[in-house]
Amino acid sequence: MSSRRNFIKVGAAAVAGAAVASAVEIPLMTTQVQQKDQALQQKEQTITQLQSQAEETSRLTGFLSLTPKQREMVEAIAETMIPTDNNGAGAKEAGVIYFIDRHLAGSYGKSGNMYLQGPFVPPNQTGPITVEGQTYPKGTISARINAGTGYQYPFTLKEYWRRGLEYLDAYSRSAYGGTFENLEADQRTLVLQDLWDNKPTNFDGPTPREFFYELHDMMTAGFFTDPLYGGNRGMVSWELTGYAGTNDGASEGFTLPQLMVMDEPQRLKPMSLADIQQGGSSHA
To answer: Tell me: the pLDDT tens digits for 150-161?
Structure first.
C-alpha cells in the first residue's frame, strides 16, 4: 500500500512539474496534490483504525467456528481477493472473517436449507451410469458451477470449508513451497487462479473450482453486507461504492422525489440497520 501511495505522489508531482509554462497552473496543481495527499492520509487513518478494531474484536469475542490455522488462511484469502489499496480498506480490514465465522457456526454452516439425503451423484458425467439399480444412458445433468444441483456431498458446508481449506493448504505447500498465508501476494493470487482452473489434483470434494466459487461468494457477501451481520466494518465498502444503505435522504433533509429529479446525483452518507434501530432514519 505504501508503494502505491508513493507512486501516486510521484506521479502527481511530475504533472505539477510539467505545468511550469503557466504561473497560474502551478498553485492549482499544488492544491490538487495536497487534497489528494489529505484524502490518502484520511484513508490510511481509517484503515489503521479498522485494523485495531479487528484485533480488539478478536481479543474480546473470539471465534465461533474457525480454528487459528483456518483464520490465518481465511484472512489471507480475503486480503488476496479484495486487497487494501489507495481506494480504501479491503476485506481483511472490513472484518469479513467474522462474517464467515459466524455463518459457519450458524444455519449456513449446518446446511440448514439443504437436502442432504442421498443418492449423491456429481453432475456433468457422461453416460451410461447406474444409480441405485437404475441406469441412465445419457449420464447426469450439466450443471453450472453455482447451481444448487452441483452440490452433491453428504456433509455440511462447515465440513465443506474444512476440507477445502485443508486441500488448499496442501496444494500451496506442494506447488508453491509454503502455506497459503505465508506466500507472497502474487503467489497467493496464482494459487486461487489454479483453483478456478481446476488445476489441483488433491481435492476430493469439493472440487477446486467449487471451493473457489464458495470462497469468492462469501468474501463478496461479507464485504458488502450490512455491518449487523459481522462484515463491512465501518461501512467501508459502501463508502467505496457510494451505496447509501438504509439512508433514504430524510436524515439529510431530502425527500425521495427531490432526489429523483436532481440535476446531479446526491451522494448520501451510508447508514446501516443499526442506525434504523437507533432512530437515525425516517424508517425508524
So the answer is: 888 999 999 999
